[in-house]
Specification:
Largest sheet of chain A: 7 strands, mixed
Shape of chain A: globular
Helix content of chain A: 25-40%
CATH superfamily of the largest domain in chain A: Medium-chain alcohol dehydrogenases, catalytic domain
CATH topology of the largest domain in chain A: Quinone Oxidoreductase, Chain A, domain 1
Mean pLDDT of chain A: 97
Number of domains of chain A: 2
CATH architecture of the largest domain in chain A: Alpha-Beta Complex
Radius of gyration of chain A: 20 Å
Oligomer: homodimer
CATH class of the largest domain in chain A: Alpha Beta
Number of helices of chain A: 10
Amino acid sequence: MRAVAIRRGSDEPELIEKPRPEPADGEALVRTLRVGVDGTDHEVLSGSHGGFPEGEDHMVLGHEAVGRVEDPNGTGLEAGQLVVPTVRRKPDGETNEYFRRGEPDMAPDGAYHERGIVGDHGYMSECFTSPADFLVPIPEALARHGVFVEPLSNTEKALEHARASRSAFEWNPESAAVLGNGPLGLLTLWQLTQEFDRTYCLGRRDRPDPTLEFIDEVGATYVDSRETPVDEIPDEYEALDFVYEATGYAPHAFQTIRALAPNGVGALLGIPDSWEFEVDGGQLHNDLVLHNKCILGSVNAGVRHFEGAAETVSAMPEDLLDHLITTVTDPEDVAPAFEDGDDQIKAVVEFESP
Amino acid sequence: MRAVAIRRGSDEPELIEKPRPEPADGEALVRTLRVGVDGTDHEVLSGSHGGFPEGEDHMVLGHEAVGRVEDPNGTGLEAGQLVVPTVRRKPDGETNEYFRRGEPDMAPDGAYHERGIVGDHGYMSECFTSPADFLVPIPEALARHGVFVEPLSNTEKALEHARASRSAFEWNPESAAVLGNGPLGLLTLWQLTQEFDRTYCLGRRDRPDPTLEFIDEVGATYVDSRETPVDEIPDEYEALDFVYEATGYAPHAFQTIRALAPNGVGALLGIPDSWEFEVDGGQLHNDLVLHNKCILGSVNAGVRHFEGAAETVSAMPEDLLDHLITTVTDPEDVAPAFEDGDDQIKAVVEFESP
């Protein structure tokens, strides 16, 4: 079968031929429809994040997939069922407490593989196998947009953790900002518009721009970070009850503390590299304490977050979802899916018409 | 009546004469037994924190009090009942949503006064009045040690918020550290020994020292920060599921992120001044995200936290509580209560023998 992979020593995706996988006991075989490309894939290609499966000279890319069950293999799934696979898997088949309690997203380093990212092949191939427990059934209507379930599962988890962090008191948030106007930022922005009275989205683009159009369409306010840095949002707009950081720009973690309203929470999801810089650490520490603020990091997601994300995608207007998909490529010609221009929002590789 | 106050322009406590207060409707009159002195009192004296009641040339000090109801004034309290007053009050008698829902500790700047700290007289006087809702009844056995209820109420709240922040998954913490071996740090350390398998307490003292003896007595491990900075605790000892920062040393907020185990939470309670320094912001941001870590600030406490703290103090062995009180002074001679030597743990001003 055809697969799109990265070879050791290369930083480019490549079309390869691989044997079709055979489902083991408890696994189903899934026919891939579409696989999305995101920032993590770019980090995997550049070598700054992730790692190859042991003993393999390549790794199949892709962790944002939607597919159709080809062979349920006695797992209880139905042939033809639309599914989205989760990302984390038991390392080398060995289970641990995190997988046993259905919280692989809380497993520490070494206690998981991530398909298409670290230690395990991804989904960018005609077929893949997976334990049925990690295949989340989604409605048939999501065949085209099921690639958004995995990214939004991360938001589902981050929001769950953020709300939990504010659950010891009566929290009545009204304002929220998303830092970053990539596909995950925009998807999350729509979700936040459903819950918050006033929403903002940070970027550094000039109009006309398809992401700024999306921000307008959902009724959010665009904040140009070249004019208004994150820590100046309270002066220019208002202090924020919730901030969602999705750029991985390291100073955002610290500027977010200043941007928060009293009792607010910032959720960090971007993954920056090492970078030393100066902060007013006394001010930040003081501000966190005197205003009961909270900053938390969140990575990956579990099955319940995928289920919540599928509901969110189902609730999103189709035209907004279509607006986000700017490139659909064939596995024979994936280069355009890995280009990162200002016109690109979400690119998907399509193995079979949904 | 006699009161210990700070006058505008001075940085020393002073014994003054004041009229005995009259309880208004809904208020009770309380006879003061003991009032503790803590770091916040020192900040009030130095002028780095807090502020005088409007229109007054002085502020009565003290926010850690235990007293006995002298005149219930029809509030439902019983004459003779032992009580601890909470600290925050409605500003200028005007209520707001935070007070209405019993969460004054979550009120933002300007939406509260703090007795003995900002905008309102404290408890370091023969008598004080308070709305009965802010007088927390405590058991008669706590007459001598009731001064520990207010400090521990802050811990009660911080722990509540920390646990809430980890409530979206199964958190099974085993290790905890208190940064700071002041009286609040030591009280909290004892509380943590009841919940965590392994506890650590950070300080920078040489033996023999009464605080290090306390750390030994409760079965915790002393970490000398001159040898092992906070961010090196994982290498030297172990990564920590919970960190409680009670020194107000600004770099601790950032070192705590490194000291935490995956899925851990750090609660900040100290209140540093502005201080610019360099951090590896990329590393910290990355570490928060990839290991689902959380940092939260916590200030003040509500009635339920005072009630929880009273239970904790009741459960603490008397000899440990006695170990913590190193100075008992008379209001006529308060200077020793405001000295801050290495032999000092908790000083109290005693108005009436408990």
